[in-house]
Amino acid sequence: MSGLSIEHVSMRFDLPNGSSVQALEDVSLHLKEGELMSVLGPSGCGKTTLLNIVAGFLAPTDGRVVMNGEEVTGPKADRGMVFQQGALFEWMDVRANVSFGPRMKGQREAEWGEKVDHLLEVTGLADFKDKAIYELSGGMQQRVALARCLANDPDVILMDEPLGALDALTREKMQGLVLKLWKETGKTIILITHSVEEAILLGERLVVMAPRPGRIHKEYRLPYAEMGVGADLREIKHAKGYAETREEILEMIWNMEEEIMGRAEELQ
Amino acid sequence: MIGLALLAVYVGIFVVSYLVVRYFVHQSISGFTARKTVTFGDESAVTPNRIASVVSVVTIFLIWGSFTGSAWVPGFLHAPAPFVGETSFTYTLEAPDGQRDDATVFVHVLPFGEKPEKFTVPPGDGFAKDDAVAMTASRSVTILFDRNDEVKRKDGAHVVAIDGNPISPDTVVKTGIGRFALTDKGAISFQPPTGLQMEPIWLPPPESVVQRAVEIARDGYRDTTLWGHLGYSLFRVVVGFALGALVGIPLGYAMGLSNWFRGWFDPIVEFMRPVPPLALIPLVIIWFGIGETGKIILLFLASLWIMAIAARSGVSGVNISKVHAAYSLGASKAQIMRHVIMPNSLPEIFTGARVAMGVCWGTVVAAELVAATEGAGMMIMVASKFQLTDIVLMGIILIGVIGFGIDILMRKAEKILVPWKGRS
Fold first, then answer.
1. A165 with A236, same domain?
2. Nearest to B330 among A88, A104, A134 (CB)
3. Backbone phi, psi, residue B371, to 5°
4. How many alpha carbons fall within 13 Å on the CB side of residue B279?
5. Torsion angle of alpha carbons B285, B288, B289, B295, nearest 10°?
6. Residue A21 lies in a domain
7. ipTM for this prediction
């Protein structure tokens, strides 16, 4: 079976004071090859925990993740990860960062050079390939992170709020780039975000998670990602149904936040 | 008194030069700082005033030269010098029978460092005869004036006046040529004006330190050349530090990567860290003697803990995202060690290395002060025993300059090897 299956995954963290937190409860999802799924939810709903489990950095207390028919037991090159920031290697220049994966596999430059240069071209970094990481702006750094992940040719790309630290304008451009790369490469992508607009614009599938315990609250199938490829994303925001979907999800998350606040007040 | 005068002069130069620069020298602050209205409390707006640095260094040499009568400082800036040259005074001797007679004492006061040579003068007439005395500047001399007199002190003769000023065992006479007193047995104690300058034995003038440095650089000291002495100290530091880093860095990595290593070495490292290396000198000498082995082991111990702690915090300082990213890109543990953890810990290791080099340099000098047959510390220790203050000063200055040079080199290396430090 190809694709990525998350099967009845639960995660419980035991706290030092003897109590425990149910970060995830019985989460099941199946991603087909080439799907782009965005995950949205209020803080504390376990979306990053879920991503870390899929990446193999955490082992779930119950359930399992199956990747191309093989159970996930740890990180592997078939699941690439793009972090929010700080995950680039400052001691390497841009090109060395992007070619890190192939080089670790023992490939020679003759094998990876063309692919890496192409990715640098696509992400608009060709002129900066010899620059040091700390000389780049935040948006450029995230493009390096994307290119580095793609150069390793993973089956699934996991993105943990990759655009969260960028300013609004850069963010919009990067969203276009993510869509373009998704279409060009046909990769399966899971994108975690706390921006409702981003989740709607980029998510072919959109999963809204609810907190305490972290679980899937509602799932949408949306047309905007497909529409957005190569188009002006600001135009998409005027498309039919977009505003309604946005309002609905915002309302949903707003209510969850209210509930959390209410519970916190009760506890006091 | 001299101390207070020095302090007053120093503070005076500080204040006056500040006022002069502030009101008479136009200093333009360029760049962004010039537009800042808030500078008091903004540390980034404070840059060292270069004029102040130059004046500060010049002041130190000026005061040094002035209070040692240096030839490099113009004469009018010299502190009052002690009297040097020929002088004389007369004393009036009263015989037991009440008769008085005057006699003259001729005094040769020689500069510091010259040996007083006896000389003679014609005795003159009367029962009190003229005397000749040679002495060194700034000292006092007891003059046994009656050795050639016809009536001696033991016969009941005694001095009643100096240059016409009455004197008794209870009074002190100060005249233009010096200070006079009578000892318990009636001899004359004479001290010419001492001035405010220091004797070279306390503080030699700068030129004699330089001259001594040239001399030792040419002829060596205690069977070893100057470069030999400094080279020995540097050699010990470099070897001791290198061994400490060679063992300490892997140890720190192991402590940052393994529970067992962390648990095993934590108590040892945390115990040894606050023990100053100087406290280990006696033990090291007992165990290994005063040879090279002991010194290198001492410096090894001095740098080992610093480097281990630096490497450990370098590992724990790695952003976990970088490690996760590397695993997701398919790197093995060895590759993560080589390509992520080691380069990521370099800034911390360099900071540790700078501290360790400083500590090692201080420790090697201290160890050589205690016992050594060559080295910068040994040089100043031996020189101090012979009161060769110029060599001591030269040694201290060279030790300071070399320590400073080591730190500059380390900072340069850091800039070249770890350009991303503090910029991620």
1. yes
2. A104
3. -165, 125
4. 5
5. -70
6. yes
7. 0.90
Side chain identity, residue B282? P
CA distance A218 to B362: 68
Q: Band of the pLDDT at B356, cuts 50, 70, 90?
A: very high
**Nearest residue of chain B to residue A158 (CA atoms):** B328
H runs (alpha helix) in B258-375: 259-272, 281-288, 292-316, 320-328, 333-336, 342-370
The residue type of B68 is T
Kindly tell me the burial class for residue A211, based on how many C-beta atoms sit within 10 Å of its own C-beta (0-12, 13-18, 19 or more). Answer: buried
β-sheet bridge partners, residue A218: A208
Q: Which residue of B has its CA nearest to A55?
A: B328
Cβ pair B83, B193 in contact under 8 A? yes
Chain A residue at shortest CA distance from B417: A91
Chain A residue numbers with beta carbons less than 8 Å from the beta carbon of B332 are 104
Q: Which domain holds residue A93?
A: 88-153
Domain B207-417 belongs to what topology? MetI-like fold (1.10.3720)
Is the CB of residue A132 less than 8 Å away from at least one CB of chain B? yes
Mean pLDDT of chain B: 89
- CA atoms within 13 A of residue B366's CA, in its CB half-sphere: 18
Report pLDDT digits (tens) over B367-410.
998 888 888 999 999 999 998 899 999 999 999 999 999 999 99
Q: Where in chain B is the domain with CATH 1.10.3720.10?
A: 207-417
Domain count, chain A: 2
CATH code assigned at A188: 3.40.50.300
pLDDT digits (tens, 9 = 90+) for B200-250: 888 899 999 999 999 988 888 888 888 889 999 999 999 999 999 999 999
What residues in B contact A101, CB-CB < 8 Å?
A: 329-330
Q: Using CB atoms, which residue from A87, A90, A105 is nearest to B325?
A: A87
Pairing of strands B131-136, B100-110: parallel
Structure tokens at B299: 């410096």
Q: Are residues A146 and A171 in the same domain?
A: no
Cβ of A101 within 8 Å of Cβ of B329? The answer is: yes
State both tokens at A59.
């082992």
User: What residue type is assigned to position A260 of the chain?
Assistant: I
Q: Test A91 with B420 for CB contact under 8 angstroms.
A: yes
Query: Among A153, A185, A208, which residue terminates a domain?
Result: A153
The structure tokens 């192939």 sit at: A102
Among candidates A75, A89, A91 on the partner chain, residue whose Cβ is nearest the Cβ of B327: A75
**Residue A70 and residue A170 in one domain:** yes
